[in-house]
Amino acid sequence: MAIVELPFGREKISVDIPDSRFNGILMSGAHSYQAEGKEEELVKKAMEHPIHSPRLKELVKGKNNIVMIASDHTRPVPSRVIAPAILAEIKEGNPQAKLTILIATGFHRSTTREELIDKFGQEIVDRTDIRFVIHESQKDEDMVFIGTLPSGGKLLINRIAAEADLLLSEGFIEPHFFAGFSGGRKSVLPGVSSGVTVMANHCSEFIDSPYARTGILEGNPIHRDMIYAAEKAKLAFIVNVVLDENKKVIKAYAGHFNDAHKEGCRFVDQLSGVDALPADIVITTNGGYPLDQNIYQSVKGMTAAEATCKPGGVIIMVSSCSDGHGGQSLYDTFAGGEDKNQIMKRFLDTPRDKTVPDQWEAQILCRILLKYKVIMVTRAPKEMILNMQMDYADTVEEAISMADHFLGRADGKITVIPDGVSVIVRNRCVS
Q1: I need a surface site. Which of 77, 123, 207, 256 has the fewest CB within 10 A?
Q2: Are 283 and 6 in contact (CB under 8 A)?
Q3: Does this model's pTM top 0.90?
Q4: What is the domain class of 2-26+276-426 according to CATH?
Q5: 3-class secondary structure, 339
Q6: For 126-161, how does the pLDDT look when each residue is reduced to its tens digit (9 = 90+)?
Q7: Residues with catalytic function
Q8: 14-40 pLDDT, tens per residue?
């Protein structure tokens, strides 16, 4: 028997797979990479040697209104590790500077105080010299127009970011299922952009592009918009990290928002690239908490399975989804019972300026559902899963049994992806 451990929420579950059926594991090298120092040391060293940029302590001189864009509750960015180093350099370079930490919720729900404490630690959240603001993409009065995206959409960002004397951001770099990689420029778009801007950038035409895929930046129309947004917002400095399976920092990059980010992307590309292992059944996850809090985010892990599952096969998505579906529009798209081919046609017929909330996630999920049966092992309500035109199982073992029944055989090969959001699956399967 092959014994595989899968992250599930804040826990791990163990699965036994017969040797005769086990096709192998697709795993990022980040899970075995040996960091060259402690987390805090890696961040500090990166900030002391920024890429194509002066040090932050130099940039803050004479800048009173400093804004740091920080990730929200859906991202495992270790802000409690990164923020102290950033705060120390700001203090050293300009003790009188006022700092606002703007939480980049993008199109997600607002981050709670408890979640801020979980990310930053009680001490930083309670500091009176730091102002925390949660970005709300639907608040038009909070936005300011700063340009027109290459896609033609209006670039509206949070006024706090637009009016900063110095704008910086923290984040992390991992494969992203349509932006190529997370981190860097994404802190501005979608991070602190208006919902109007996010929807223009995430239009069906761009999502459908063969270049809007995991690990691809060159030719990616979504990435092109994001770069433009970061430039127009005058994002001056970033601190981005790479994480292992335990969400610990193994590498850090600081400096110019694009150059430092590209350097980090090259490292992640080398570390995370894996060759597809085509199989009838593919088991994947979203890497556990916090990325497996809802179905919306779990679509990301499904795309890794999509890249290695045989046509007509079964994807088993292991994701706690303790927060439910994570997007009402996503849920409603499938819960009405409309044929998936019609859903996809409707998406592709939608003009760039008519994109609706969560359309991008629903489009990708629909793309997957048109090709594969998806069985979810989750804490989300069974009825919710079934309404979204997927199947539900209480355990991975039950899901495998259901997959066997669907395929009409009990000897199909099984490929396992313990963390679907951490890998770039190469040599995609074709029918």
Answers
A1: 123
A2: yes
A3: no
A4: alpha beta
A5: coil
A6: 999 999 999 999 999 999 999 999 999 999 999 999
A7: 108, 176
A8: 999 999 999 999 999 987 898 999 999
